[in-house]
Structures are given as C-alpha cells and as structure tokens.
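Hi W.,

Here's what went into the run:
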Amino acid sequence: MRLIIAYIQPHMLNSVKEELYKAEVYKISVTNSLGCGQQMGYTESYRGVDIEVNLLKKTRIEIAVNEAFVQPTVDAIIAGARSGEIGDGKIFIVPLEEVIRIRSGETGHEAIG
Amino acid sequence: MKRWMSCLGAAMIFGLGTVTQAAAEEPALKAVVDRFETALDMLWLILAAVLVFFMQAGFAMVESGLSRAKNAGNIMMKNLMDFSAGAVAFWALGWGLMYGASVSGFIGSDQFFLSGADSALYRDWMFQVVFAATAATIVSGAMAERTKFGGYLIYSVFISALIYPISGHWIWNGGWLAELGFHDFAGSTVVHSVGAWAALVGAFFLGARKGKYVKVEGKIKVRAIPGHSMPLAALGVFILWFGWYGFNAGSTLSGTDPDIAHVAVTTTLSAATGAIGAMVTSWLWFGKPDPSMSLNGALAGLVGITAGTWVVSPLGAVIIGLASGVIVVASVEFFDKVLHIDDPVGAVSVHGVCGAWGTLAVGLFADGVNDPSITGLFYGGGAGQLLVQCIGVAAVFAWAVLTAGILFGTLKAAGMLRVDEKEELMGLDIGEHGMESYSGFQIFSNM
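Here's what came out:
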C-alpha cells in the first residue's frame, strides 16, 4: 500500500480529477495549501506598490492506493497537472503501514478500495 | 421673504390647484407658484437621479455575488468604469443623439458636450445619464468571468455614446416609435432590453466559461458554477429595488405629479410578486425554493413593471409581476439548458426577456385611467396598442443585436474579447488587474 501525495497548481485540479477518473481512481482527498519551490513566488501590486508573494496557493491531493494502482495514479496526475512550466508541482510516494475503515473496521487492502 | 412664506402657506391651505386658478388673476402669485413648481421638479429629479445612480452599487453586488471570488475585483472595475467611461461618452455624444433636435425621428443632432445648457437641461441630463449607465452595466454580468477588461472598456463607450441613445431617441424624444404611440414609461425596452440584447450578443460571441458545458460521451452536460456570496447578491437586489423607486417614480419627471404614488405602488407590487412567482416556480420545478432564482424574480418583476407602471392598476401590476417571476426562471433554464449561452447572473432573462414581456404587457393591461389613449386588450382597447408594443420590442431588438453584433464581432476578430484559458482558470483579478479581491483569505480558486 502506498500513499501518494501531490502538490499541484490549483487551477489544474479539475483536469487532474478528470484524468484520475479515466484511470479508474475514484478516491481522493483535497486540501488548500501554501508553499514555495523552484517557482519562487510572483509579484502582485496593490495601489501601485509591488507585493512579493512568496508562498503560493497550491492544492494538495492525497490518494491511498494498492501497489497495482501506483503507476496509473502517478501517470494520471502528471497528465492532468503538467503544463511544462515551473510550478507544476511534485508528487511524493510514501509506504503506508495500515489502513482502517472506521465504519466497518476493515483493514489493509479491503479498506483502501 | 415674508410674502413668499405667506404664499407657501396659502398653497398648503388651498392646495396647489386652487392656487393655480387664483394665479391666473394674480401674476405675482403665479410667479411664486411657478418658482415652487420648478424647485419641486428640480429636487425630485435630482433625488431620483441619485437613487438610480445607487443602482450601480446594486448591479456590482449582484454580479459579484453570483460569480466566483477570483473575479470579484474585475467585476467591480467593470461596474465602476462602465459608469465613468459611459458618463463622459453620454456628455460628449450620447445626450445629443438622444435628445438633440430630431432628424426625421431617427436621431438627435445637437446639444453635444451639453452646449447651450441651462439649469433645466443640466437637471435632465443628470436624470438621463444614470439611465444610460444602467443600460450599459447590464452587460457586465452576462459577460462576467471571461472578458478582457480593455475590450469591455471599448464596449462601454459605444453603448453609452451610440447604441442606447439612438434607440432611446425613437421612443423618448418623439421619434418614429413614439409617433406610432409606443409606450414605455421608464424603460423596460428603452433601457433594460437594449442592455440585455447587447449582453446576449456579447455572451454569444464570448462563448461559455470553461467547464460550464462539458461534453460527456457526445452529449453536452450542463454544470453549475455557483456564485461566491449569496448575501452580496441579496444586498445588490435590495439596493436595486431601492433605486428603482427613483427609476420608475422619478420618470414622472415632475415633483408636483400626484401619480408618483401610483407608480411607486405598482412598482412595489410587481417586484414583490416577481419574487414570489420565481420562488414558487423554482420550488415546484427544482424541489426547493431557490434563493438566487427568487432574487432574480424580484428584479424580473421590477423590469416587467417599468414600461407599464403608470398605466396599469395595482391588480395589473400583481399579474405582470407574477408572470415575470415565472418567465425569468423558464428563460434562465432555456438559455442555459437548450441554447447553452452562458449568462452567469441571468441578465438576459431578467432584463431582456422580462423587459420585452413588460413592454408587451402595456398592450394587455393598460387600463386607460391615467392616459385614455393607451388602453390594453384586456380593458377593451383592442389589439392596436399590443401591436404597436410588438413593433417597438422587435425594432429595438433588431437595432441592439445588429449594432452589438458589429461591435463584439469586431472585438472578437481583433482578439480583444476573451482572456486566455490559463488566465480564466487563475481568475481575472490576478490576470487583468494583478491583485486579489480577498487578500488574506484562503479561498478555493480551483473551480
């Protein structure tokens, strides 16, 4: 079992969701987040004064999957989120020790799907 | 001064009518009465103009409330600038084309830049410029969330300088439609329909917002894009309703006209029944009483009564309002689900479709009491008035669609109409203006 965490551009969320749906990955958690990487922020201006915005709005998505779904999920996220410009985001994959469904008490592979 | 006061006292005691009779025999008294009539007209029209001006705030709130947070600042700028650019255009060109000396009933030809104006003309210009701005600002909602700001500025100048004044001249300055007997008291057609038909053409040329109509397995699926603040939208509707008392009751054009009260009553009843009509329709149709539809319904009732407010009875106003409430819901559904023309705030349905309905309703419900020459079908006046109203609605539709089509078609061909896809996704606040409306709040901007 793996937990896939990805940070993407907020405006790419819809296309990522569409790609995941095509790859038959239907379960996802989404949160708003702030962060910076190579993109280094941008400048806004307010009443003629520049404001450096270092922490950019990003969207964090988390998907817990069985081994067989790791590659299709990663491919779908890339297909949906990639524009080729700096700031497209990153994907992290971490091992997942246990998954428990609260309602039924199921664990492991059954609880994920 | 003392003499004045005693004359005022006399006016109060005997009523203006008695004094006017006496005035014929007493020239000094007549001069004083005239002076008071002029003062009352001045006060009433400037007060009404200020009320109508405040409708700009109403439009700004309705439009931002019914669209997404990431575009709110852009909508504020559009509302600010269509008035500001429009006022200058109406001073330079618009007023002259609308109220200047008529060239064969089609177009005005003098008083550009308010040349030769006296205080009465300043008063009338002030009252009219806010109407021109109302027509102009209707378009901003229908074209929300995807229009380039520069293109919108160009449009603002054109509608206030050319499109609105010329069709307005036909109806409100003794032009060819007025000659036919077309009646539009405060501008269901002159103001609201002109703006809305331009909005329809604009929304058509722009295309829908990304994600609004999605093709799934060969069929177009209609998605909802919820507005970001229902309280702002409701505040806007209440402000518009408030301002509408200036819009309709002010159109008596006289501070001594007792019909001010009649107009205010029919306006109130139609707005109220418009809201009720839309609420009931949405309740029966969608299963729940929909807030944004009910708000649109109040506006629909106001637009619907604007043409006939002076010539229909309170019962007529109730029927016109109820029908407007039903029509606006059906029309929003029709444009969205059948024609797939994306109008985020329902401006075309509220101002265009209900404007046309209200104008036609004059030919049905005019009771002939205030003006015996205007009597509708249901009050024994025959179909004559209805036919004339139909001609007016059709002529103004054709004029607005033709001119707005040329304007928006040119802007589109020049690439000045629509923002690129990435900017639309990130929001026009960042893309067009380089700032955010809700800085410091974390808002989902990924819809």
